[in-house]
Amino acid sequence: MIIVMKVGSPEAEIERLSDDLSTNWGLTPEKIVGKHKVVIGLVGETAGLDPLQLQEMSPFIEQVLRVEKPYKRVSLEYRHGEPSDIPVTTPEGTVYFGHNRPIVVVAGPCSVENEEMIVETALRVKAAGAKFLRGGAYKPRTSPYAFQGHGESALNLLAAAREASGLGVITELMDADDLEKLSEVADVIQIGARNMQNFSLLKKVGAQDKPVLLKRGMSATIEEWLMAAEYILAAGNPNVILCERGIRTFDRQYTRNTLDLSVLPVLRALTHLPIMIDPSHGTGFAEHVPAMAKAAIAAGTDSLMIEVHPNPAKALSDGPQSLTPDNFDRLMNDLGAIGGAVNRWQQPVPVPV
Ligand code: PEP
Ligand code: MN
Predict the structure, then answer these.
(1) Is 192 in the same domain as 320?
(2) What's the pTM?
(3) Which residue, among 309, 342, 314, has the nearest Cα to 328 in the 3D structure?
(4) In angstroms, what is the span from residue 193 Cα to ligand 1's centroid?
(5) Quick one: pLDDT band at residue 175, thresholds 50, 70, 90?
(6) End-to-end Cα separation, the chain, in angstroms
(7) Among 41, 113, 158, 320, which residue carries the largest CB count within 10 Å?
């Protein structure tokens, strides 16, 4: 349930109302400050409450509305239709993910392999306009015999690349035991597709402060995905970015997954959270990444995640879907044209290649 306050409601009245709601009604009010209005979100035992009775609690209440969806805090209604901005601290200042913000590009290798490759990739993607470096230290691999990531030592290499490039770092957390050391380097914590419904992990990242990138499970419905995000918000962390990375397909020959770009308009109508599209895992082939990245911008994505490797043929994971730095430069050049057309491009003016 949400209480929409009238424009210009006195702060003291909002406080009084919130106190009343928690002390006398046993609710947990959450104050959400929008651009124009303040909304008080109420989650808990609200089924038996009468909106008209609540309405009488203050002359400054404009409306009391029920959130009918099973997900509450992530629903668009919860912020009364206003998209949220997710601020992320990076070495070069705060970068915002949001629907009214420039598109944020995240790029880098699937796995952190050694210092030279991660620093080189970071400098190249930064020069092309990326704002974040991605790279896995802990890799969720289908086979236990495949490269599992260099673990803690790779976190140190990410720290070196962060320092050298000034980029923010996004890296995946697989095990809650690694949260503390991973948080020392990660500016955004990635929860991978395979852990989207690892509810104990979701509660743990919900109970800490770093923003979370929540990838869609490979067979997850949109509602399951939003309910997973709800776990993180319910545990106290409002800063979640949703990442579509392709869903399981029957055609494994020509595409690794089916990149579901329809989530862009669908999620936009359901949630205030920002959306990222990952065409690298979404298609599995470097040659298909540019078309889907362009389509994602045209369809309204807030962010893109692109795998880039200095030598894809030698990559320890996901080489076939990784762009070379030169191809990434070309892609960013093309994306600038589309991003500019939708007024959402703030990267450096691309140089002709
Ligand atoms: C990744 O980003 O490298 C990754 C493993 O992604 P996903 O969880 O989407 O498979
Ligand atoms: Mn990968």
Answers:
(1) yes
(2) 0.95
(3) 309
(4) 6
(5) very high
(6) 53
(7) 158
The boundaries of the domain holding residue 9 are: 2-66
Do 178 and 268 lie in a common domain? Answer: yes
State which ligand 1 atom lies nearest to the alpha carbon of 246. Answer: 9
The CATH number covering residue 276 comes to 3.20.20.70
Same domain, 52 and 94: no
136 lines ligand 1 (CB under 6 A): yes
The residue to mutate among 118, 171, 195, 215, having the most atoms of ligand 1 within 8 angstroms of its beta carbon, is 215
Ligand 2 centre to CA of 308 (Å) is 10
User: Do 194 and 295 fall within a single domain?
Assistant: yes
| Interatomic CA distance for residues 7 and 254, integer angstroms | 54
Report which ligand 1 atom has the smallest distance to the Cα of 195.
8
Q: How many domains does the chain have?
A: 2
- Whether 349 is covered by a domain: the verdict is no
Summarize the confidence of residues 48-69 as an average pLDDT.
Answer: 93
Per-residue HEC secondary structure of 150-184 comes to: CCHHHHHHHHHHHHHHCCEEEEECCCHHHHHHHHC
- Answer yes or no: is the C-beta of 193 below 6 A from any ligand 1 atom: yes
Q: Span 176-196, mean pLDDT?
A: 98
